[in-house]
Every structure is written in structure tokens, then in C-alpha cells.
Specification:
DNA-binding, mainly alpha, Arc Repressor Mutant, subunit A, homodimer, Tetracycline Repressor, domain 2
Amino acid sequence: MRMAKAIRKKASKKGLILQKAAAMFRQRGFAATSMRDLAEVVGIEAASLYNHISSKNEILEAICFEMANHFNTHMDQIEATRQSALSALEAVLRFHIKQMVDNYEQVYVSDREWKHLQEPYLSNFQTQRRTYRKRIAHLIDTGIQKKEILPIDSATAVLIMLHAISGIESWHRSKKRISARELEDNMLTILVGGLRKNH
Amino acid sequence: MRMAKAIRKKASKKGLILQKAAAMFRQRGFAATSMRDLAEVVGIEAASLYNHISSKNEILEAICFEMANHFNTHMDQIEATRQSALSALEAVLRFHIKQMVDNYEQVYVSDREWKHLQEPYLSNFQTQRRTYRKRIAHLIDTGIQKKEILPIDSATAVLIMLHAISGIESWHRSKKRISARELEDNMLTILVGGLRKNH
DNA sequence: CCTACCGATCGGTAGG
DNA sequence: CCTACCGATCGGTAGG
């Protein structure tokens, strides 16, 4: 659990390419990363990349949909367990924070570079994204109905929470200052603390 | 006040170019926007752009530093007025939200595309950004000292707040659902409500 | 502000 | 997995 490794990885050459690509797409952006740059980091010629992947966009698709599946799967599990809406929400947020720390490059890329996906992947991804956010909003609305959560606009709350968490970005580099667990607790205090009704 | 116009604009041809560029850089990203694309939207040939600007990067510099100045200037004003740390913080956040609604394209671009700046502008911008965040963190720390704000890690709080606000992005398109003022109040409730000590 | 154009670099393929 | 290469497109300039 503590050692839960990042998603996939160097197992295969393709895994290595995806890993290095995620790191470069995050740093420079998808459009500003060339296949020649990527090939150099991987350690082969640009043309050789095409023995493992069929296009630059396919790499982005792999990263984005792997993360989408990852988050959707976790949400399925949350919804399957019977717990209060507030603790379900808390579990979802903690999962997001954990992913931000453990799979930083991929999460960042699927969060910020998805607009470079091509159709039909673009529409598919956007739909999944919208659906996922609605599931969280539904959790909040349920909590409001049950008087566990203060009455606020749930869609606003979802946006605030997800974007707040994606802000861990700036942190990652100075991760000594605060441990992952402290960060998680700190964020939950600020984000959920403000919603809990009597404290 | 209500009609406070967006920063600069079509006054000159250069203003028009910067405006259109901001819109395109936001939509497609800086690297994925070509000078030919931009020229077409402006209504001239690509080569003619260079009579008004000297390079693609100069456009990005103009956008990023104009926004940086804008936020720094407002922070100067906030610090110059004598008010509680909590209300100063609230004023800063309300200003950010307002900018997100009024100058959406520019704020978005200076927030997400600054990494494409070249040296020495890149370092300059990053320094200004860091300094600005420290000023907000200082406001929070002061509030904590004065027992106006719950003791939390101020740097974490700054990141959460700024990223939460930059999340209004997703909203902009469906701005009928909720008015700018409602949005502002909703966000402040969630963000600052969680920090206020007795409520 | 346009036509004409430059060298560089891009994603990707052929063929081995 | 490499060498050799393609057509397209890039940011930008010359010259008027």
C-alpha cells in the first residue's frame, strides 16, 4: 500500500516511451515536444519510436485514457461501498491527492494537455470528464440532502476542489517542506472543513 | 464599475493582434498556434503581423507581463489600505475571480502558457509569480497571528485558492447558469468560510 | 500591407 | 532498430 507503484512503467519499451513522453509533455507541453526530442530521451532514433507506437497522438491517447479509467474505476469502488456522502467525498479527494503525488506526470498531462487529442478521442474524453464530475457533484448533493454538507452549488464545489488539487503541481518540486500525508490532511482541512456543518 | 472594460483592446492594430492571440493561445495553446492561423483571424497576411510585433514570443510576453503588472498593482493597493488580514485576503480573491470573468483569455494564457516564455523573460516572470504568492501567504500568516484565521499552512492555502479560482475556466462557457456575483460569493463561502474561525 | 521566399524542423514512411 | 528521406509547415525576412 505504501509502496503502491506508479501506473505501469518501464516493463516494456512502449512503457518506457509512454513514461518519458508523459514527463516531456508535462514539462514542455504536447505541441512543443517533438518526436526527435522524445527519441533522444528514450535512447533510440526518432524513426524507431514507430515500431512501438503508431503516432504522436496515440501516446497522448494512452496517457489520457489510462488516467480516465483509473479515476472511473476508483469512483466505482467508492459508490459500491456504503458510507456517508461526506466520507465518500473525502475518499475521492484523498485519492486525487494521492494520484497527484504518485502519478504526477500522467495526471498533469491528462489534466492539461487533453485538448490536443483528436476526434473521436477528444469528444470521448470530454464526455468521460463531464460524467466523472457529475458523479462527484451527485455525492455532494446527496450530502446536502442528508444535512451532512452545507447547501452550496455542487458544481462550483467540484470545480474548486478538483482544481485546488491539481494545484499540487507547483509543490511537487519542494516536497521536502511537507510530507504527502501532511499535504493531504492540510488540503482536506481547507476544502472539506469549510463544508462540514457542525465543527 | 459595472462596465469596467477588459484590459486594453482593439484601440490599435497591435491591440487587436494581442487580443486575438490571447484567444487562440488559450484555445489551442501557444505552441500549437501558428502565425498564419493568427494572421487569418486578424485579417492580414502572416508577414504583415511583423509590422506590429517583432516575434511570436513577444506577443506572449506582452500578455503575461501585462497581467503580472495588473495583479501586482492591485496587491499594492490592498496592502496600502488598513484593513483586517482576512478582509484583505477576501479582496484579493474577489479581484482574482473578477479578472477570471472579465479578462478570461489573458488571465488563462498568463496562467497556463507562461512556460513558453524565453529567457530572460521566463525567469523574470517566475520570480514575480513567486513573490506575488508570498505576498498572499504573508496576508494569511498575519491573519493567523491575529487569530482571524485558523492555523493552516499558508503556502498550501495560497495554492489551493489560486488554483481553485483558475478553475473558473470550465465555467465561462455556461455562464448563464450562475451570475458572476453568485459565483464569487459561492467561491468565497467555500474557500474563506473554511478558514474563518468562529461562524 | 503584400508577394515571394528562406532555412529549419516537424510527424511520419520506405526499405532493409 | 537504423539510414535515408518525404512533403508539409513552421517563424521570420527581403524588398517593394
